Amino acid sequence: METPDVHGADGLLGEVEEAEADLRSAASRDLEGTASFEAIVAADQKIEPRDVMPEAYRKGLIRQIAQHAHSEIIGMQPEGNWITRAPSLRRKAILLAKVQDEAGHGLYLYAAAETLGVTRDELTEALLNGRQKYSSIFNYPTLTWADMGAIGWLVDGAAIVNQVPLCRCSYGPYARAMIRVCKEESFHQRQGYQSLYVLANGSPAQRAMAQDAVDRWWYPSLAMFGPPDTESTHSAQSMEWKIKRFSNDDLRQRFVDMCVPQAEILGLTLPDPDLRWNEERGHYDFTQPDFEELMRVVKGDGPCNRQRMTHRRRAHSDGAWVREAAQAYAEKARAAKGASREEVMA
Ligand code: BYC
């Protein structure tokens, strides 16, 4: 069967490439070495860890990057849930690779956060004791195999729409991490779309399963972009500092406009009777997600919050011996290196 590539994906990847080229030229920063934080941001160049920065900028970035990193790690659970039940060896291998990629994204992001003066251990602790959050989307259950396709298409799709502008974020290490994440995320979205396309064009039961998955994931995906602009606490400051480049509502609209033609190609219906093209606005009108539900889920009362955190805490304590062994090995290797250096000097 001919499976079309996800419509519109090339545009987003093009933006990532442009952001990467701009990042390279920002690396040869032509501002004076003593340029102020404000001057660097105003010149659209990058703040690096060595630069003086306002404490609120540093703290705000730690909050966002940590939440983002935790999302990648917790995001492994809903999909990991289907690895043993994938319908073929090929699908299993693809899903395994995808879940591993998410772990990698978590690592890039923890490393970016560490450049701001926190340790990975502190960030992990903040997740485990509930002081830091992760994306609302991963508190919904994955009920059927079609959810793997719907997550790839809609959740990874929303993640890319949100993250492509972050490739132009004013903080260098975050922007650089985002370039890699977006390239891989775009591949994830393509595979999700392809998998959903196969189901949508399969037997009546497969088609119904694909539609049901889209019905369940549509509104939680819209909610990923955060509260409406009028209720967003951090947007104004984040945009002034060029961490965020577009508002929550603007990105949500961009996502809807992108998904409508993609759904048509899939032959699936987006579960919104009021979704229609608005000639005057040049955008689709759509029903907003339930923001009260979003806030309930963010505060810990979603369908799977408890399950996700219980699993994460267990995984962390089960992995203690690996961390201890790695530490002991590193210390041994350091001591051996020290000893051989002493021999050379003697
Ligand atoms: N979930 O002032 P606002 C992914 C919180 S998936 C949870 O607008 P901001 C992946 C917000 O933190 C996604 N919390 O905040 C995909 C704030 O609370 P606090 C991860 C949310 O920061 C596939 C409060 O609500 N992506 O990567 O300006 C597989 C008010 O919001 C949510 C990122 O994290 C939510 N959906 O804008 C695996 C991208 N929405 O902190 C992984 C980076 C809002 O004051 N992050 N809140 O207690 C961002 O772009 C921004 O942080 C957001 C929110 C757009 C999410």
From TrEMBL:
Pfam families attached to this UniProt entry: PaaA_PaaC
Cross-referenced Gene3D superfamilies: 1.20.1260.10
GO MF: phenylacetyl-CoA 1,2-epoxidase activity
Annotated GO biological process: phenylacetate catabolic process
Extent of the signal sequence: none
Cellular component per GO, a single term: cytosol
Protein name, as recorded: Phenylacetate-CoA oxygenase subunit PaaA
Organism, scientific name: Rhizocola hellebori
Gene for this chain: paaA
